[in-house]
């Protein structure tokens, strides 16, 4: 518990310095609390062996009981076992926490062993094959857009217009939209620069939303471009309002599958048909690997190339 408090203080300083997002801090906190529940607050990680970490990993798969009823008084279904992807997130946060403690000489370097590892790429490929395609069809997406409220329509359009993720949209500021058809929006996850061309439909939806936008609650959110109709930010801590509303809207439209993040998958899938892979990677905010020498030498992506890729996806969606 003492180590966790020190780590939390260090993370808060990074949040104040804009080196870490509040949402990421909330994810760290949630995973570390889960670790403390499994091992106890008085345990010393110095004493843990690789077998202890293997036991911790197995406990992380156990479902978390819902103790607080969600809106409407329904507690929701209880999963039998947490997914490998969810547990991977906990492992990543726990490793970051304990490695930080070791770097600060608060404990000996942790002995994670081979078992306390994230899901292998082979297993991920098998899981992906079992799930099947995750992109959204154009006619389904048009149906969703047709039912979206003015507060949510521009968010969905940004998701498919340029593959922008929910967290990046939720953190957009008023200064990011000045009526221009071009948007400069570095990706929060990687810090990669992005310059994006906005469709006429996207710009019109943003303008219509701004006419209805209300001042958010809380001064810290005053400059957020998008807030809910309840004057709250779309993302706070681990709460993802964008993702939840998209699933609700999709279900109301009679569409069985699809998440907001699948808009990003859809953009990538359709944009790749242009075969301009460097431009697509730039728009998506992907960071090139160290051995990608073409990316290391490439100094610039033209506006014409960016517009051509975004326009291709627009033609696919609106025929």
Structure description:
This protein starts with a helix and ends with a helix. A hairpin with a 2-residue loop joins strand 3 (235-236) and strand 4 (239-240). It is built from 14 helices and four strands. A two-stranded antiparallel sheet has the order 1-2. It has a two-stranded antiparallel sheet with strand order 3-4. The longest helix has 20 residues, at 84-103. Residues 70-76 have low confidence and may be disordered. The protein has two domains: 2-129, Orthogonal Bundle (DNA polymerase, domain 1); 138-318, Intergrase catalytic core (hpI Integrase, Chain A), CATH 1.10.443.10. It is globular, with a radius of gyration of 22 Å. With 319 residues, it is mainly alpha-helical. It has helices at residues 2-16, 22-39, 50-60, 84-103, 121-131, 138-147, 153-162, 166-170, 200-212, 241-252, 261-271, 277-284, 293-297, 303-318; strands spanning 182-184, 195-197, 235-236, 239-240.
CATH first level of the largest domain: Mainly Alpha
Oligomer: single chain
Structural domain tally: 2
- The H/E string reads HHHHHHHHEEHEEHHHHH
Q: Main beta sheet, described?
A: 2 strands, antiparallel
Output the strand order for the largest sheet: 1-2
CATH architecture of the largest domain: Orthogonal Bundle
Report Rg: 22 Å
In the CATH hierarchy, what is the superfamily of the largest domain? Intergrase catalytic core
The N- to C-terminal Cα distance equals 57 Å
């Amino acid at each position: 518990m003492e180590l966790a408090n020190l780590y939390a203080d260090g993370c808060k300083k990074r949040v104040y310095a804009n080196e870490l997002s509040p949402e990421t801090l909330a994810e760290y906190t949630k995973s570390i609390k889960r670790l403390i529940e499994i091992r106890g607050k008085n345990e010393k990680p110095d004493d843990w062996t690789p077998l202890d970490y293997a036991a911790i990993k197995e406990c992380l798969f156990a479902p978390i009981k819902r103790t607080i009823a969600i809106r409407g008084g329904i507690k929701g279904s209880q999963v039998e076992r947490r997914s490998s992807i969810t547990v991977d997130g906990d492992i990543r946060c726990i490793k970051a926490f304990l490695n930080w403690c070791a770097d600060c000489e608060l404990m000996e370097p942790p002995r994670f062993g081979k078992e306390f590892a994230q899901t292998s790429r082979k297993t991920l490929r098998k899981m992906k094959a079992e799930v099947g395609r995750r992109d959204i069809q154009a006619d389904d997406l048009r149906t969703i857009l047709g039912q979206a409220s003015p507060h949510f329509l521009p968010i969905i359009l940004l998701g498919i217009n340029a593959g922008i993720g929910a967290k990046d949209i939720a953190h957009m500021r008023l200064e990011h939209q000045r009526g221009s058809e071009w948007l400069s929006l570095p990706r929060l996850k990687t810090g990669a620069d992005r310059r994006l061309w906005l469709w006429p439909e996207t710009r019109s939806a943003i303008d219509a939303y701004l006419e209805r936008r209300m001042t958010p609650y809380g001064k810290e959110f005053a400059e957020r471009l998008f807030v809910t109709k309840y004057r709250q930010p779309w993302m706070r801590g681990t709460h993802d309002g964008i993702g939840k509303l998209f699933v609700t809207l999709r279900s109301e439209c009679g569409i069985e599958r699809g998440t907001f993040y699948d808009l990003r998958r859809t953009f990538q899938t359709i944009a790749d048909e242009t075969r301009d892979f460097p431009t697509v990677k730039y728009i998506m905010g992907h960071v090139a690997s160290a051995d990608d020498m073409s990316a290391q030498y490439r100094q610039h992506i033209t506006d014409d190339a960016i517009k051509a890729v975004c326009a291709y996806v627009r033609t696919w969606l609106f025929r």
